[in-house]
Amino acid sequence: MPGIDGTEQYVAPGSPTKTGRWREPIERDPTFYQIPYASLVPRGAKNVLVAGRLLDADRGAFGAARVMVNCNQTGQAAGTAAYLALRSEADVSQVSCDKLRDCLRGQGAIVI
Length: 112
Prior knowledge:
- The protein is mainly α.
- The protein folds into 2 domains: about 30 residues, no CATH class; about 70 residues, no CATH class.
- Helices cover about 35% and strands about 5% of the residues.
- A two-stranded antiparallel ribbon has the order 1-2.
- Strand 1 and strand 2 form a beta hairpin.
- The two termini are about 25 Å apart.
């Protein structure tokens, strides 16, 4: 199971727990994680967005992202991205992440 501080533990029944790192240590570890917009845009689909528990993530990340507050946040992001795509007559995969973040901030969403 990965941690946002870069540590991970691999636990398998009947085997000793293996401890390691998925990234090198840094001076100050993050106290949050982010869900990239790309994980809401399914590959190979045109103008489809997913939100909530449908997002693309590995097992460890999904365990953290599937909680209700994140489902609400990805739903807000997907709805806002759909609006931006419609307004600019573009595919949802072409929505600017910077514009999406700005629009979400304007709605009062917490965006880091």
